[in-house]
Specification:
rod-shaped
């Protein structure tokens, strides 16, 4: 059990899931921007 107490799992899971969603959305934005840049300007980014 996390922290030795099962009652702390819901709050920790909620914080962890929101943090993962935030990081995932940030990486998705960066990757999509880079992909669009490579598609529009293939010769300048190689």
């Amino acid at each position: 059990l996390i922290g030795g107490s099962p009652f702390q799992l819901p709050s920790d899971y909620r914080i962890g899931s929101s943090y993962i969603l935030f990081v995932g959305a940030t990486w998705l934005t960066v990757i999509s921007t880079l992909t669009t840049g490579k598609m529009c300007l293939p010769t300048q980014l190689i």
